[in-house]
Amino acid sequence: MVVSQGCEVALGTIICDRCGKFIDTADTNRVIIYYSRCEDDNCSSPEEEEK
């Protein structure tokens, strides 16, 4: 595979842990998924999560 010079490859992905929406990427040394909360009102509300 050929990757263009000057092209950055971000191996970390940040997704919402409630809705699964892609949030951003992170520059990491390995493939990894981080979970956070997106800014959607349904996801960022302080409601207690079901167990």
Question: Can you tell me about this structure?
Answer:
With 51 residues, the protein is mainly beta. The protein is 8% helix and 29% strand. It is built from one helix and three strands; from the N terminus they run βββα. Strands 2-1-3 form a three-stranded mixed β-sheet, with no helix packed on it. A hairpin with a 5-residue loop joins strand 1 and strand 2. The longest helix has 4 residues, at 41-44. The radius of gyration is 15 Å and the shape is elongated. The mean pLDDT is 81.
Q: Can you tag this structure with a few keywords?
A:
3 strands, elongated, 51 residues, mainly beta, 1 helix
Largest sheet: 3 strands, mixed
Q: What portion of residues belong to β-strands?
A: 25-35%
- Silhouette: elongated
Question: What's the gyration radius in Å?
Answer: 15 Å
Distance between the termini: 44 Å
Please specify the SSE layout and strand pairing.
Elements: E1 12-16, E2 22-26, E3 32-36, H1 41-44
Parallel strand pairs: 1-3
Antiparallel strand pairs: 1-2
Describe the structure in brief:
By secondary structure, the protein is mainly β. It has one helix at about 40-45; strands spanning about 10-15, 20-25, 30-35.
